[in-house]
Amino acid sequence: MLQNLSNIKEKAVKTIKEAADLESLQEIKVALLGKKGEISQLSRSLGSLSAEERPQMGQAINQAKNSLEHVINEKMAELQKAALAARLNEEAVDISLPGREFLCGGKHPLSLVREEIEEIFLGLGYKIAEGPQVESDYYNFEAMNLPPEHPARDMQDSFYFNEKLLLRTHTSPVQARVMEKQAPELPVKIISPGVVYRRDDDATHSPMFHQAEGLYIDKKVTMADLKGTLLIMVKKLFGADRELRFRPSYFPFTEPSAEVDISCFACGGAGCRLCHGTGWIEILGSGMVHPHVLEMSGYDPELCSGFAFGVGLERIAMLKYGINDMRLLFDNDIRFLNRF
Ligand code: DAH
User: CA–CA separation, 43 vs 134, rounded Å?
Assistant: First the structure.
């Protein structure tokens, strides 16, 4: 039996040393030391030995078991090391490759313009107001002095949900919402940036675009206040030597109404391609709030007056950053957006 044990051991050491990989080593281990393995079988036959032989044989089996375990563990470590080396070799890092670019986001040009305008008016004591994009016919048109059959409604064709509900065509309805809430408290001083919608779509019009509405109502507000306020805005946005020009215009919610131009920042007023040779660039609509608009929202036109204006943010961004197609602002092309 002792001879048998030493034969098994000798053979086992040889097969262990020859094991090609961890899997076959595991199989060898089970065949030797597992429950039904060769060594266990020997232990089971101890019962057939005499009382003197038994302890001697038992000890020999244990020694063999320990030393085989040791050989197996050594072999396992060796195979593991080799496997790791092979994997590292396979997955070797080429340190001469360029690194991965880290893409860093930035603010959209429209956000930059909106924030700049907000900053200017916050600095003048205005509050930021918001209104819903899904607006009622009442606030979008009627409260802005555009009754149902008014022909000027055609200037702002919109998207309707039903007869009474539409996507707002301008930020002007926020005027009525704010006044209604605050009346008759003075002053009303708000700037309201936001998204608006119209049925327009070309290089300078998008069906979805952005405006900022300004409204100031107090005792004895005049057109001079409007001009002074807009001059501050325009100088901050386009440079300290910009000038303003008011052209008579028509909006149902203001009387008188004016379209406002700035002196061309590209040529300084001499006339160039940007200003179509006129020296002036149109930037917004404005006027003195119509007495009827004040009245409808709870203010007495005998006691107060106010000015309002509405400015297109896309137009400001396009002028400020020299963008020639409005659609670029909505394409989300990272090469374009990265330039701001
Ligand atoms: N709501 C006008 C538009 O979208 C712009 C406008 C003009 C707003 C004159 C005003 C204003 O507040 O006084 O075309």
Answer: 87
